[in-house]
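Example record

One chain of 170 residues, shown exactly as stored in the release files.
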Amino acid sequence: MFEVLVFVYENYWRGDACPELAHLERKLNAVGFDADEIQDALAWLNDLNLAARGLQQPTPDNAAGISSLPLSDVKQWAPSANSMRVYSVAEQNHLSSECLGFVSFLETAGVLPPHMREIVIDRAMAAPGDPVPLDDLKIIVLMVYWSLGEEPDALVLDELCDDSSSRLAH
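Predicted C-alpha coordinates for this chain:
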Protein backbone atom coordinates (compact mmCIF):
# COMPACT_ATOMS: atom_id res chain seq x y z
CA MET A 1 0.00 0.00 0.00
CA PHE A 2 2.77 2.47 0.86
CA GLU A 3 4.41 2.09 -2.55
CA VAL A 4 1.11 3.21 -4.08
CA LEU A 5 0.90 6.18 -1.70
CA VAL A 6 4.45 7.25 -2.56
CA PHE A 7 3.63 7.01 -6.26
CA VAL A 8 0.54 9.19 -5.77
CA TYR A 9 2.53 11.73 -3.73
CA GLU A 10 5.32 11.92 -6.30
CA ASN A 11 3.00 12.20 -9.31
CA TYR A 12 0.35 14.53 -7.90
CA TRP A 13 2.28 17.10 -5.89
CA ARG A 14 -0.90 18.51 -4.35
CA GLY A 15 -3.94 16.58 -3.20
CA ASP A 16 -6.28 18.74 -5.26
CA ALA A 17 -4.34 17.79 -8.41
CA CYS A 18 -5.09 14.11 -7.85
CA PRO A 19 -7.80 12.66 -10.09
CA GLU A 20 -10.96 11.09 -8.71
CA LEU A 21 -10.43 7.68 -7.16
CA ALA A 22 -11.93 5.72 -10.08
CA HIS A 23 -9.63 7.45 -12.56
CA LEU A 24 -6.68 7.08 -10.19
CA GLU A 25 -7.40 3.37 -9.89
CA ARG A 26 -7.18 2.97 -13.66
CA LYS A 27 -3.86 4.86 -13.73
CA LEU A 28 -2.43 2.74 -10.93
CA ASN A 29 -3.53 -0.45 -12.69
CA ALA A 30 -1.86 0.77 -15.88
CA VAL A 31 1.39 1.42 -14.00
CA GLY A 32 1.33 -2.18 -12.75
CA PHE A 33 0.51 -2.02 -9.06
CA ASP A 34 -1.14 -5.06 -7.47
CA ALA A 35 -4.96 -4.80 -7.39
CA ASP A 36 -5.14 -5.50 -3.64
CA GLU A 37 -2.54 -2.82 -2.89
CA ILE A 38 -4.46 -0.37 -5.05
CA GLN A 39 -7.73 -1.09 -3.24
CA ASP A 40 -6.10 -0.74 0.17
CA ALA A 41 -4.42 2.53 -0.82
CA LEU A 42 -7.60 3.97 -2.36
CA ALA A 43 -9.66 3.14 0.73
CA TRP A 44 -6.96 4.70 2.90
CA LEU A 45 -6.80 7.80 0.67
CA ASN A 46 -10.58 8.16 0.71
CA ASP A 47 -10.59 8.14 4.52
CA LEU A 48 -7.67 10.59 4.51
CA ASN A 49 -9.64 12.95 2.29
CA LEU A 50 -12.64 12.69 4.61
CA ALA A 51 -10.45 13.40 7.65
CA ALA A 52 -8.77 16.35 5.91
CA ARG A 53 -12.15 17.86 5.14
CA GLY A 54 -13.50 16.94 8.58
CA LEU A 55 -13.94 20.48 9.79
CA GLN A 56 -16.13 21.25 6.80
CA GLN A 57 -18.12 17.99 6.92
CA PRO A 58 -21.74 18.31 7.99
CA THR A 59 -22.78 16.42 11.09
CA PRO A 60 -26.29 15.47 12.23
CA ASP A 61 -26.10 18.22 14.87
CA ASN A 62 -24.81 20.78 12.41
CA ALA A 63 -26.22 20.35 8.91
CA ALA A 64 -24.02 23.11 7.47
CA GLY A 65 -20.76 21.83 8.99
CA ILE A 66 -18.42 23.31 11.56
CA SER A 67 -17.26 26.07 9.22
CA SER A 68 -20.66 27.75 9.59
CA LEU A 69 -20.34 28.00 13.37
CA PRO A 70 -19.25 31.21 15.08
CA LEU A 71 -15.50 31.30 15.67
CA SER A 72 -16.00 31.25 19.44
CA ASP A 73 -17.79 27.88 19.18
CA VAL A 74 -15.07 26.41 16.96
CA LYS A 75 -12.34 27.51 19.40
CA GLN A 76 -14.00 25.47 22.14
CA TRP A 77 -13.10 22.30 20.21
CA ALA A 78 -9.49 23.29 19.55
CA PRO A 79 -6.91 21.94 22.01
CA SER A 80 -5.40 24.59 24.24
CA ALA A 81 -1.70 25.34 24.14
CA ASN A 82 -1.37 23.69 27.55
CA SER A 83 -3.14 20.45 26.63
CA MET A 84 -1.32 17.14 26.43
CA ARG A 85 -2.15 14.24 24.11
CA VAL A 86 -2.48 10.95 25.98
CA TYR A 87 -2.20 7.90 23.74
CA SER A 88 -4.39 4.88 24.32
CA VAL A 89 -2.85 1.46 24.88
CA ALA A 90 -3.96 0.43 21.38
CA GLU A 91 -2.25 3.50 19.89
CA GLN A 92 0.91 2.84 21.88
CA ASN A 93 1.02 -0.77 20.74
CA HIS A 94 0.25 -0.07 17.10
CA LEU A 95 2.52 2.94 16.71
CA SER A 96 5.50 1.97 18.92
CA SER A 97 7.60 4.31 21.00
CA GLU A 98 9.75 5.18 17.97
CA CYS A 99 6.75 6.49 15.99
CA LEU A 100 5.23 8.27 18.98
CA GLY A 101 8.62 9.87 19.67
CA PHE A 102 8.79 11.09 16.08
CA VAL A 103 5.28 12.58 16.33
CA SER A 104 6.34 14.31 19.54
CA PHE A 105 9.48 15.61 17.81
CA LEU A 106 7.40 17.10 14.98
CA GLU A 107 4.99 18.69 17.49
CA THR A 108 7.83 20.15 19.55
CA ALA A 109 9.43 21.53 16.39
CA GLY A 110 6.14 23.31 15.67
CA VAL A 111 5.54 21.62 12.32
CA LEU A 112 2.71 19.28 13.33
CA PRO A 113 -0.18 21.21 14.87
CA PRO A 114 -2.78 19.28 16.92
CA HIS A 115 -5.34 18.98 14.11
CA MET A 116 -2.73 17.47 11.78
CA ARG A 117 -1.41 15.22 14.56
CA GLU A 118 -4.87 13.75 15.04
CA ILE A 119 -5.19 13.00 11.33
CA VAL A 120 -1.72 11.40 11.36
CA ILE A 121 -2.66 9.22 14.35
CA ASP A 122 -6.00 8.27 12.78
CA ARG A 123 -4.40 7.28 9.46
CA ALA A 124 -1.53 5.48 11.20
CA MET A 125 -4.03 3.44 13.20
CA ALA A 126 -5.65 2.45 9.89
CA ALA A 127 -2.31 1.43 8.38
CA PRO A 128 -1.08 -2.16 8.27
CA GLY A 129 1.82 -3.29 10.40
CA ASP A 130 2.01 -3.99 14.08
CA PRO A 131 3.79 -1.84 14.99
CA VAL A 132 3.80 0.63 12.12
CA PRO A 133 7.39 1.15 10.92
CA LEU A 134 8.79 4.67 11.29
CA ASP A 135 9.37 4.96 7.54
CA ASP A 136 5.67 4.24 6.94
CA LEU A 137 4.69 6.85 9.54
CA LYS A 138 6.82 9.40 7.68
CA ILE A 139 4.88 8.64 4.50
CA ILE A 140 1.64 9.10 6.44
CA VAL A 141 2.80 12.52 7.65
CA LEU A 142 3.71 13.49 4.07
CA MET A 143 0.29 12.36 2.87
CA VAL A 144 -1.46 14.41 5.57
CA TYR A 145 0.42 17.52 4.43
CA TRP A 146 -0.44 16.60 0.84
CA SER A 147 -4.15 16.13 1.56
CA LEU A 148 -4.37 19.51 3.28
CA GLY A 149 -2.65 21.23 0.35
CA GLU A 150 0.26 22.27 2.55
CA GLU A 151 3.90 21.91 1.66
CA PRO A 152 6.28 21.11 4.50
CA ASP A 153 9.30 23.38 4.67
CA ALA A 154 12.58 22.05 3.28
CA LEU A 155 14.00 20.87 6.61
CA VAL A 156 10.81 18.99 7.52
CA LEU A 157 10.66 17.46 4.06
CA ASP A 158 14.30 16.39 4.42
CA GLU A 159 13.53 14.75 7.78
CA LEU A 160 10.48 12.97 6.37
CA CYS A 161 12.36 11.69 3.32
CA ASP A 162 15.55 10.78 5.18
CA ASP A 163 16.45 7.11 5.49
CA SER A 164 17.52 6.98 9.14
CA SER A 165 18.85 3.43 8.80
CA SER A 166 21.86 4.71 6.84
CA ARG A 167 22.84 7.29 9.47
CA LEU A 168 26.12 6.86 11.25
CA ALA A 169 25.95 7.83 14.91
CA HIS A 170 29.06 9.52 16.27
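Notes: Residues 55-69, 71-75 have pLDDT under 50 and may be disordered.
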